[in-house]
Design brief:
- Helix content is 27%, strand content 30%.
- The protein is an alpha+beta fold.
- It has a single domain, classed as Peptide deformylase (Peptide Deformylase, Alpha-Beta Complex).
- The strands form three sheets. The chain has a five-stranded antiparallel β-sheet, with helices on both faces. Strands 3-4 form a two-stranded antiparallel sheet.
- Strand 3 and strand 4 form a beta hairpin.
- It starts with 26 loop residues before the first helix and ends with a helix.
């Protein structure tokens, strides 16, 4: 029998479902958050959203705890207990300046492409004690937040590149890249 809380791959329908907000941190949700961290760590991910671990809840976790101000590199937690837990995230505003960077996704293994996203975002969210946070994020942490937030909305990074939806920024994927991504998605669907 397969374990329910495992890494979910495209085209599983849970990846396309908008998640439900959390109103109370029950013991089962806290255990689930720990499981999300374990799955992300085992797969060497930079972050993972609840739908990727087979729950339609508005949560994501990441080992990234911030961005180094000088180098713009991510700062990583040393232990699972120190990971960043994001519950019920909201995007309040975003910069008009876009930055392109190669993204991948644990649910779409070995598929990478450059996505243009806002350089800076202002967000609000709850942490694992349901404390409210309002922050301005930039660089790595902003990109990671947006990528995982998209998962909570049922959006995959490839949706922007193949023209399925827009995030307000022009993507540079040419015809060949769009074709490559479309074929890769079809191959996932055929599995």
């Amino acid at each position: 029998m397969q374990e329910k809380h495992r890494l979910i791959f495209y085209p599983d329908t849970i990846l396309r479902k908008k998640t439900e907000d959390i109103t109370d941190l029950t013991p089962s949700i806290l255990r689930f958050i720990d499981k999300m961290k374990e799955v992300c760590a085992q797969t060497k991910g930079l972050g993972i959203a609840a739908p990727q671990v087979n729950e339609s809840l508005s949560i994501f976790v990441t080992p990234i705890t911030g961005t180094n101000i000088k180098t713009k590199d991510p700062i990583y937690a040393k232990d699972l207990k120190d990971w960043t837990v994001i519950i019920n995230p909201r995007i309040l505003s975003f910069s008009k300046e876009a930055v392109g960077y190669e993204e991948g996704c644990l649910s779409l293994p070995k598929l990478f492409s450059t996505v243009f996203r806002p350089k800076t975002i202002e967000v609000s969210f709850l942490d694992s004690q349901l404390k409210v946070h309002k922050k301005v994020l930039s660089h790595w942490f902003a990109r990671l937040f947006l990528h995982e937030y998209d998962h909570l909305q049922g959006i995959l990074f490839t949706d922007y590149l193949i023209g399925k939806i827009s995030n307000g920024f022009e993507q540079t994927a040419d015809f060949e890249e769009k074709l490559r991504l479309s074929e890769a998605l079809q191959n996932f669907e055929a599995l």
